Amino acid sequence: MGPFVPDIITDELNLxxxxxxxxxxxxxxxxxxxxxxxxxTGLFYGTDFTVLRVFFTAGVTAMSGVTLLSTLGMLxxxxxxxxxxxxxxxxxxxxxxxxxxxxxxxxxxxxxxxAAIGKIDAIVFVLGGIVGVFLFGEAYPYLSExxxxxxxxDLTIHSLLGMSAGQFGLILIGIAVSAFIAVGxxxxxxxPHGPASSFPTxxxxxxxxxxxxxxxxxxxxxxxxxxxNRIAASETYQRQHPVKRMTADEIAFRILDKxxxxxxxxxxxxxxxxxQSLPGALNIRPDEFFSKQWDDILRSRKTKVFLADNETPATxxxxxxxxxxxxxxxxxxxxxxxxxxxxxxxPSAESNQDNANQDERRFRLRAAPLLTKxxxxxxxxxxxxxxxxxxxxxxxx
Amino acid sequence: MNAQREPAPYMNPYQAGFLLGLILLMTIxxxxxxxxxxxxxxxxxxxxxxxxxxxxxxxxxxxQAAATSHSPLKAWLxxxxxxxxxxxxxSGVVSHRLTWRVEHPAHVRxxxxxxxxxxxxxxxxxxAMLGRGCTSGAALSxxxxxxxxxxxxxxxxxxAAYGSAWFFRRLWN
Lengths: 397, 173
Hints:
Chain A is of the alpha/beta class and 397 residues long.
């Protein structure tokens, strides 16, 4: 599951990858004509909409890919770098950049392209950019408050609008295709010799239909977390994939035996866990299964026994874990409430039971005080937290 | 330089956009981050200030936050920007577009164009720091992961550019 930084790819190798990615990026930008300020600014005067076409196509392609990979479980969108939202700084910074774009005729990436093929104005733009960053650095003490104000963190546009990434993706694709059609007409009208005059219309129509179909797929397929949660909770799935159930006695025996092949996973809320939890249990919530932070525990060769107050949430959690590819999962028969009733509340001494149950009764009588003591030693034990290791990125501070 | 050979025509913009989108997707898939450009400016500035005036760099939050344990030039975006420049150069070679010149419309004097490029670059550099990224890092990479801030910055860039284009029309037409 991507991304491969920071866990698989080292920092040094990542720099080499950055260089190679940069090469591909620069080659395509130059091939598209982004090394020419005349072509870039054509966007603002209606003579050449190349920038809009390239930019929007690239954005829609990458967005569709990210959403599809996330749906297929191949990319963890919780740990990739999401450009953070600082409302005022984003708006004012963008406005200043827009002004710089019209005056200078480049943006930083395209200025590197222009400079690379000998455009002296692009080299000057790059120097100006360095001056601008320096001025910002000097002015930062006065700007920092504004710079850090109106922070919304890793806010995504679809969560802001209350829809799935795929649903917003379809809207975005719809906007892009409409914009392509509109600017094509506008450009032919303003500049009859512009790029649109020589477009292969048939293949462009086919491409538009194809990307709209991709958008429909994105919008229809539910997000992976939602989809897997729904499957894991469905009775049909649970009937077809029964989970191993361990009796309270077996769990109690294995705890007292300090069985190294047993891993108890308490899926209740951190508050309930802190109040009372079984010895050796870790508090992992099912929504944390999707990220990699507990991967080593869930992937270990131990038998993972999911604990909840009753069997239903534990069964769902175990089903979810096995859907995510984790093996050796089990649940506690009857849940923690049953465990408390049968093991911890030790049976009274009355002996109207048959011989077969005598061993069980003796075991429970001995186990109850030991386990109660072990559990009380864990009182107010705060669950271990493993924050999601996010990728660092971005161009700001 | 192949001055005698005609420059090759530019790539179809949708084709170029598709390739660019795949490169960006690959970047996110492998490294978990997007593309960028203005971050390289920042590394150069931070490294320069730290070399020329280390005491001054130690005071400012901006320089401190950006300078980590190793050299600020050993940053992902610096390597990416170097690759970007080399890639664009190679593209210029294969398409016969290498020339030393100031690109300017016939009625605009080269000096005017240079001054506008310097001012525009300065504004862009400043704005990119304020907006935490430029057209690559904030707008394009932000769009790919549907970041609200990135899309907002994109709207602000193009909104301000269209809003002010009329005032600067004589620079271009």
